[in-house]
Design a protein that fits this description.
Elements (H helix, E strand, L loop, with lengths): L7 E17 L2 H10 L2 H14 L10 H8 L4 H8 L9 H18 L14 E17 L2 H8 L4 H14 L6 H8 L4 H9 L7 H16 L2
Antiparallel strand pairs: 1-2
Length: about 220
């Protein structure tokens, strides 16, 4: 069993949601606020479903698409927003820019859409995501230990290393892929994990998929 240059330390996270007090009642206000709010707001509204419904089937809709359809009745725009492929973006900043560009393009083609207003109780409330990252006592020195630990850590740990570290911390790839490539020297296996679209799995299914890929890779 090949020993890693550096052991992998598993982290976990605690999550809080905080109201910002910022609200949008139409598409123009929504667009302006999307451009201004913190990255933690964009992260919350594009990943909330994953965080709150960890065992339900994906694909998770983002909050912007849901509000545009259910409150404003702009089905075409909602479909465009829902079809944004989050896995293609490596930073919250680039994801924000994409969402804003979709809204801007739609408003240029459909200026009357600005005239649709949500009621007082239906306005879009911007919420930010606050995470507290906590180190665990689990260290993996090789792939066998890695699998053993991965089988028992919480889904919050998996969520942090796969989702949050990649896009919110702007690492560009998930922590598992990075460690396997840099410390284990297995770029082929690392690439397999990097190409995995985690948004198409529940967190428990994602755990099993990663374990299976690593198990198969370590036997070759």
């Amino acid at each position: 069993m090949i020993k890693a240059k550096e052991p992998f330390r598993f982290y976990t996270r605690l999550h809080l949601s905080e109201l910002t007090g910022l609200k949008a009642s139409n598409l123009e206000e929504l667009l302006n606020l999307i451009k201004e709010v913190s990255g933690s707001c964009i992260y919350h509204h594009t990943h909330r479903f994953l965080q709150q419904h960890q065992y339900l089937s994906p694909e998770p809709p983002n909050d912007f698409a849901y509000w545009v359809r259910e409150v404003l009745g702009e089905d075409e725009l909602a479909e465009k927003l829902a079809s944004i492929d989050t896995i293609q973006f490596f930073t919250i900043r680039s994801l924000r820019d994409k969402i804003a560009s979709v809204l801007e393009s739609y408003l240029k083609k459909n200026p009357k859409a600005k005239l649709k207003f949500a009621g007082e109780d239906e306005r879009f409330h911007f919420i930010k995501s606050i995470s507290f990252i906590i180190p665990t006592n689990h260290f993996a020195h090789n792939l066998e230990e890695f699998i053993q630990i991965l089988e028992k850590v919480t889904v919050d740990s998996i969520y942090f290393h796969v989702f949050e570290s990649r896009i919110r911390l702007e690492k560009g790839k998930n922590d598992f892929s990075f460690w396997i490539e840099t410390s284990m020297g297995d770029k082929r296996l690392a690439d397999k994990l990097s190409k995995l679209d985690p948004y198409t799995y529940t967190l428990e299914d994602l755990r099993r998929k990663i374990i299976r890929l690593i198990g198969e890779g370590s036997r070759k």
